[in-house]
Amino acid sequence: MEQGFVDTLISPEGKLEVLSKAEVNKLLDSGKGGLYTMFRNCALAVLNCGSTIDDGKELLERYQSFEINIIQRERGIKLEIRGAPAIAFVDGKMIKGIHEHLFAVLRDIVFVSNEVTDNPKFDLSSTEGITDAVFHILRNANILRPQINPNLVVCWGGHSINRAEYNYSKEVGYQLGLRGLDICTGCGPGAMKGPMKGATIGHAKQRFMSGRYLGITEPGIIAAESPNPIVNDLVIMPDIEKRLEAFVRTGHGIIVFPGGAGTAEEILYILGILLHPDNADIPFPLIFTGPESSRDYFVQINEFIGTTLGPEAQQRYRIIVDDPEAVARQMQEGIKQVREFRKGRSDAYYFNWALKIDPEFQRPFAPSHENMRNLKLHKNQPVHLLAANLRRAFSGVVAGNVKDEGIRAIEQHGHFEIHGDSTIMEPMDALLASFVAQSRMKLPGKAYTPCYRVIK
């Protein structure tokens, strides 16, 4: 099925039906400054939903003949697609959720290019300007819903998890859905799909018909983590840092399931933010959870956090093993505290303006060999800044594992070298080695060759 190819012509359904000639030209321009390559690659990733590919380079090489063109007509636009993965179609017709995602990709790429990147109104070198850009991208995608009480739970975890962990994430999602809580994930497979799938059943049993399954992604990761069609709100952020900020600004609490380097990156991101002195009094429920078989995973994560960031960081989360109902109840209670806190300060429920995010967590990090080598991984700095640099290290490992540019950089220049204090390097090396041993770096059945070398 995966190897089949389909040609088709599709129209939008209420999303971005009209484009200007300048926008079309920019979208179809594959030269420098043009958007075609990004648009094509994101569209291909969306159409590859359900595939067993988690390698951006492999996906692009397998579907080299894939093309997508915009046809302008008097009554609006159509997308002409050639060589699309057959997995996106049923009896020759594109799956409706995937159809919606294609036009979400188009909407966000056009908006970010025209209204953010090329707009002097946004100072993307300042922390306020970056947060403002994140807000406007989310508002344009109709993600921000002002008339709803806090109920959005962000679920993080690996795309490569075992069946027991997947089923557990689904059970947690079910318990959240029974309590009327909505789900936001990185929108891919594994621990990103499980909670959404479970929540759909919980929502259906409660006749909760307006359930939200929000997926937040970015162009670099989307090929490795194709959006699953349960997602009914998809938004493409410009880079990983704005994607992470979107999670913590829109979500009212976070649940972390087992995962690999990407999950470690996310944990370090949220802990680094919560450890900033300005955020000490802001309620933000954070729960790590998994089945009994994952207990050792969380023991090791907890030890790594204690060794590198200290006991204060360990106070910012709870670990609950093998108890989906307790997870859902604790999250529901935590979100009630978030509501009371924001209500008392007259803060918005739909966007966490009060959260202080240091520029070190906002500045886009390009995981080049030089940048990875020069990371400041030592304890002679504020703990939230150490978390920022550790996050970058894990972000680089993710890039080398699954992102097209990262994989090509490793092929050309060899391993990323990660240097730092031995008190940090040794637990980091042990944690990464455990991810490899537990097949958390790549989907099951694929041999993993490390893209990094930890220098102690």
TrEMBL record:
Chain ranges of the Pyrimidine/purine nucleotide 5'-monophosphate nucleosidase C-terminal domain: 335-455
GO cellular component: cytosol
Domain Pyrimidine/purine nucleotide 5'-monophosphate nucleosidase N-terminal: residue ranges: 9-115
Database matches in Gene3D superfamilies: 3.40.50.450, MoCo carrier protein-like
Catalytically driven reaction(s): AMP + H2O = D-ribose 5-phosphate + adenine
UniProt enzyme class: hydrolase
EC number: 3.2.2.4
One protein family per Pfam: DUF4478
SUPFAM superfamilies: MCP/YpsA-like
Recorded GO MF terms: AMP nucleosidase activity
NCBIfam families, per database record: Nsidase_PpnN (NF038390)
PANTHER family, per database record: CYTOKININ RIBOSIDE 5'-MONOPHOSPHATE PHOSPHORIBOHYDROLASE, PYRIMIDINE_PURINE NUCLEOTIDE 5'-MONOPHOSPHATE NUCLEOSIDASE
Protein name: AMP nucleosidase
Native organism: Pseudoduganella buxea
UniProt lineage: Bacteria, Pseudomonadati, Pseudomonadota, Betaproteobacteria, Burkholderiales
